[in-house]
Each structure stands twice: as structure tokens, then as C-alpha cells.
Amino acid sequence: RAIGDLPFPVIAGIGHHQDQPLMCYAADLAVSTPTAAAVALNQSWVEAMYLLQNSQHKIFSNLQTTITESRMILSSASQAVENYFDQIIGRYNRSVEKIRTHINNFGVYLSLQTEKIKNYQTLINQNDPHRQLRLGYSIVRNHGKIIRSAAQVKTGDTLAITLSDSEINTQVIS
E-strand spans in the chain? Predict the structure, then answer.
């Protein structure tokens, strides 16, 4: 009963081949000699060491595999992020180039429009009636309408002649 109540395993190896003591029935393992008991005890330690080494090898192998897979995943993710940023930078550079092109085109457009405005200003200045009057020309009107030909007037019409500094009213004699 004392052997059955022990908290650890018991190996019995008393050395009697023909007789089986009661202890052998209560033990966890019964062998024929003390030497066989030592071998059995060492056998479990050898197996335990083997299992420990095998488990250690599996753990380190699994750890190495996990590290390698994690590095591959990290490398792939890093490459994906790098590619994504390259795409963003490429889009940015293309957008900047388009904006520069539009700005240059707008500058050319502004230059052309500025030149047109200058030409229109010159044309307006050259045809300004006040300028024509300052150059010595006059504007003749009959009842408010500008006269361009003698056929537009008759004897007795009252004409208004505009000069650069005043207006003269006159009557057609012939």
C-alpha cells in the first residue's frame, strides 16, 4: 500500500526470477534484476533526452520557418508599399508636368491676347475722331447725320462742322 500511495513512479527490480514479490504488483514497472531496473530508468532518460532534443529541433525549425515566412511577407509588403508610393510619385510628377504645360500654354495665350489688345488699341487710337480732328480734319453733319459726299446736301441746308477746338454752323450756298 505504501508503494501505491507514492506520488512518483516506482520501478521494482529485486532480482528473483521465480518469485514475484507483492511490490512488483504495486510498482509502475517490474523488472527481474536491479541492473534491468537501472537500464529501464536510464532508458526513459535517454528517450526523454531524445524527445527533448527532437522537440527543441522542431521548435527551432518552426521558428526559423516562421521567421523566414515573416521576412518574405514583410519584404512583399514593403515592395508593395514602395510600388504604391512610386505610383503616387509618378502621378504627382505627371500632374506637375501637365500643370507646367498648361501654365506655359496660358502664358503664350496671354501674350497673344496682349498683342491683340495692343493692336486693337493702336487701331482705335488711329481711328479716334478727336485725333482726326487734331490732325486738321473736320466732321460735317446735316441734321445730325455725317456727310460723306456732296450729293448728300443741297443748297440752303444748314451744316454743323466740328473742328478740334469748336463747332461752326454754316449754310450751303451752292
Answer: 11-12, 29-30, 139-142, 145-146, 158-162, 167-171
| Lookup: cell for 108 | 503664350
Neighbours of 13 (CB within 10 A): 21
- Please report, for residues 2, 20, 117, the alpha-carbon distance to residue 66 in angstroms, rounded to integers and kept in the order given: 50, 54, 75
Confidence of residue 17 (pLDDT cuts 50, 70, 90): low
Q: How buried is residue 140: exposed, middle or buried, by Cβ count under 10 Å (0-12/13-18/19+)?
A: middle
Reduced to 3 states (helix: H, G, I; strand: E, B; else coil), residue 134 is helix
Q: Do residues 32 and 15 lie in contact, with contact meaning Cβ atoms separated by under 8 Å?
A: yes
Please write the tens of the pLDDT for every residue from 87-139.
Answer: 999 999 999 999 999 999 999 999 999 999 999 999 999 989 889 899 999 99
User: How confident is the prediction for the chain on average, in pLDDT?
Assistant: 92
DSSP letters spanning 9-59: --EE----SS---HHHHHSSEE-SSHHHHHHHHHHHHHHHHHHHHHHHHHH
